[in-house]
Amino acid sequence: GSRLRYLITSRAISARQALWRRVRAALFPAPQESPVTRVCVAVTAFPVTGGIRAVLAGVAQATRGAWQIEYLTQAVGANAQDYSIQQFGTKYMASSQFPGAWLYTIAGFWKLLSLMRHGAGYQVILPQDGVFTAAFSALAGRMVGIRVVCIDHGSLTLLDSPTYRAERVQALAAKSWSRPRYLLARLRYMAYWPSCSVAARIAVRLVDHLLIPGVAGDSVEESCQRLGIHPSRITRFGSMIDSEWHSVPDAVSRAALRAEKGIAAGAIVIALTCRLAPEKGLDIALEALSLALAPLSSTQRARVRVVIAGDGPLRQQVAAAIVERGLSATCVLWGETTHEDVVSLLGLSDIFLYTSRRGACLSMAVLEAMASACAVVATSEPLSNVHLLSAGRGIALPANDAQQLGQALTRLISDPALCRQMGDAARSYVASYHSPAVFRRTLLRATYWSGLDELLSATSQPAALR
Q1: What are the Cα distances from residue 303, in Å, to 118, 309, 452?
Q2: pLDDT at residue 32 is higher than 50
């Protein structure tokens, strides 16, 4: 009896699989033979300032010559002319609220299927963060028979985060909406949070592998365990930073860079690069800067320049807070910037300030600042910052503690030699443990690229990776 049931079941499964292979072959053309792998990177918005863009820049650099990348996104940012981008949906289909998140998922799913139906020839789909992006990518990948490897930058750890939910509600309160509109938004969130959980369940069930940056003990493993993800489907890695791309200019070059931006050669430059959003703690950053400047002499205060690069929903509030705190002569808002401009800013800076209230995995902003030999003052969100900045490579402090952050800034502003010592140690660490070669190997293994060994042996020299 049991053997007969086994035979019937196995034959039925085999027949169903054979039928689906025929349907798939009829609907979706087989990829053309090519020396490079066609990769679709699905992402909510691109290109925009932030850690995800830095990661994707690393992906493009590390796989140059092996991958041909096309980006699939709902929102196309500025400076998109240098990328191959496919757009889907409308501005009302944002993944940040209900029901737009499901409209976003449906639109992304159909767009991806349409691209494959019309010969896009993708061999790997690489969704970035966002459970809804991962869900539609995984569904489409399973239908077409393409390997899907999700790079998660923290969305899985946010599913049950009360801090994240509180931030979203507080952002609603800050808007000048009517009472009915505000209440409707609150009701939509009551449907949004369960929707996130459903999308996450779909994604983790159907994606083939997850690449998650970070270090052991940063709570990511616990989140994955709650979602039922087997450890064999997870690869933890250190995000890639090319130290040679983040070159440290000599005194003459740095002075020239500063002159281009209207900054004095002898200024003490403090940089912040982030999206201007509540979770980035910009109110804490401005308070810490005020506290840091207070004990300095008038001469020292006059030398300090603070550059905030990035844009976001809090831009007007940040600009108003700068004026309110009397920091207009010290702080400047650069707005949305290209990745090249971020690298240039870090190269001309002495100190990097990072005040995030929450985080997960690895902070690309911190890693890039370390690679640029900046003295980093950062919160311990994410927890990996404590590891990155240990052994004198920087200063990691509790989130929301403007007093301690201000004291650390005062110390560094008053001690240029300490800044250089921290920056040199940080740059050396990044060059050793976050190199393009290591990241390239991780990516190609996770995507099961068949020519991995040959490619790595052919590109063993660092120059070949660039």
Answers
A1: 58, 19, 51
A2: yes
